[in-house]
Amino acid sequence: MNISYDSRYNIAYLRLAKKTKNVNSIKIGEEIIVDIGKDGTLYGLEFLNANKQLFSEKSGAEFSVLNEATGKHIEIPLPV
After folding, report:
1. Which of these, 8, 4, 24, 11, lies nearest to 51 by C-alpha position?
2. What's the predicted TM-score (pTM) here?
3. What residues are paired with 3 via a beta bridge?
4. Exposed, middle or buried: residue 62 (CB in 10 Å: 0-12, 13-18, 19+)?
5. Which of 2, 20, 51, 68 has the fewest CB within 10 Å, making it most exposed?
6. How far is Cα of residue 33 from the mean position of the Cα atoms in its chain?
7. 3-state secondary structure of 51
8. Residues facing 60 on adjacent strands
9. What pLDDT, in 10s, does the model give residues 3-47?
10. 3-class DSSP state for residue 52?
11. Cα 68 vs. chain centroid, distance in angstroms?
12. How sure is the predictor about 75, in pLDDT bands with cuts at 50, 70 and 90?
């Protein structure tokens, strides 16, 4: 898994698997695009207007990861 952020265009991309050439991009909302294969494999999520979607009043723009099994939580700040 990989997350990238492009501050020029304010887009974040969460890559879950390496894309193949048979990936469909489906816009599921005004600011979210899902990349999915014909077999149903989820390859990634693209967040348009990312700093708004990933913004926390407490700590600014960040990507937050929580391990539900262990309770471990990390926050990755976005360079906005």
Report:
1. 11
2. 0.73
3. 14
4. middle
5. 68
6. 9
7. helix
8. 56
9. 888 889 989 899 999 877 789 999 999 999 999 998 899 999 999
10. helix
11. 18
12. confident
State the CB neighbour count (10 A cutoff) for residue 12: 21
**What's the sign of the alpha-carbon dihedral 79, 52, 30, 43?**
positive
Length of the chain: 80
Which two tokens mark 57? 């009043």
C-alpha span between 30 and 49 (Å, rounded): 9
Tokens for 12?
């974040």
Question: CA-to-CA distance for 24 and 9, rounded, in angstroms?
Answer: 22
Give Dmax over CA atoms of the chain in angstroms. 40
Question: Which residues, 6+ apart, have CB-to-CB distance to 9 below 8 Å?
Answer: none
The DSSP element (H or E) to which 34 belongs, if any, is strand 32-37
